[in-house]
Amino acid sequence: MFGLVLLVGVAVVFVTGLLSYAAYNPDLGNDTTPDKGLLGFYLFDWPTHPAWLYRLTQGVHVTLGVALIPVLLAKLWSVIPKLFDWPPVRSPAQALERLSLLLLVGGAIFEFVTGLLNIQVFYVFPGSFYSLHFYGAWVFIAAFVAHVVLRLGRMTSALRSRGLRDELRTDLAHTRPEPPDPDGLVPAEPAAPTMTRRGAVALVGAGSLALLAVTAGQSLGGWARYTALLAPRNRNPGTGPNGFQINKTAAAVGVTAADVGAAWRLVVRGGDRELRLTREQVLELPRHTAALPIACVEGWSTEDQHWSGVRLADLAALVGLPDAANVLVESVQKTGSFRSVVLRDNQIRDPRSLLALHVNGAELSLDHGYPARIIVPANPGVHNTKWVAGLTFRA
Hints:
Blueprint: H1 2-23, H2 53-67, H3 69-78, H4 80-83, H5 92-119, H6 129-161, H7 164-169, H8 197-213, H9 217-220, E1 266-270, E2 273-277, H10 279-283, E3 288-292, E4 305-311, H11 312-318, E5 326-331, E6 340-344, H12 345-349, E7 354-359, E8 362-363, E9 373-375, E10 388-394
Parallel strand pairs: 1-10
Antiparallel strand pairs: 1-2, 3-4, 4-7, 5-6, 5-10, 7-8, 7-9
Helix pairs in contact: 1-2, 1-3, 1-6, 2-8, 3-8, 5-6
């Protein structure tokens, strides 16, 4: 049963993880994951419709991944004897099986641990989390698929051998050990059981439900946000127009009031044209509004915020590139990752894609990106660059 849950759950987590990397547009240079070749075969132009797409896919990825941890631990506990087989290698075939088991168990532990550390904002990685998690996922899924192929028949026959309802009705007095198996997972002389099978399922299920209850609220929003005890960001970010979650503060990335004060200029480039605009000049450009959420790779998201600013498409037209292929967005932030990102042509053309100047009827706060920030539908949060200083549209 644990294997069946992991079979479905891991598949969903893997697919939503791949979608997250596609959303990061790595082939535009936005992170260090591979952009072409064997592992980048599936990359596609991430859409801007619906606006909540990334909020959904990344929310599922993180929430389901966390909820699967008790199931993974129970599954690993059930195969502990195989991890300590001695002698470790008895034949070439057994050596191959041990290698696949090492990749499977090691890959599972690596992916779940690095993912959990990342969403809890513990940046302890010896390199880019994105590359490590991406390559680790492919190693793990290769071993996972091989294991499924080898064990699917065994799992199917085991599930068919007894009725689930009968097992859940069996009390401790009538619980019997498993019969001897060819894989040596069952002890030769098992001790009397101390827990029923329904108890084991209930224990693991309760653990998963508990983690689900203290995680899902960060993606669902509303009243559920207060239940997200494991949320990496503040569950109560304050009140007022700027009272919603913040990924990184201005102080954390070295942005000061002087950087965004009277001397600040928005530099808009395209072809051989360059404009240097004060904030007052930007405010004089045609203004538009959009109701869009912010969704982070860490799994949290906001409800729709009401943004007001200048369309990216209008800024592209100002420098003579209404059909720009992409735009390089640069921030004044001095430290940290994603000081610059590249947005695709479909993201530029979407009428809801803005250089935002106001949110919920008020000026952006410094922590939310004053004097100007990017907001694009279905875009990962770190690509909605704050404290924007330059936009370079390219043909």
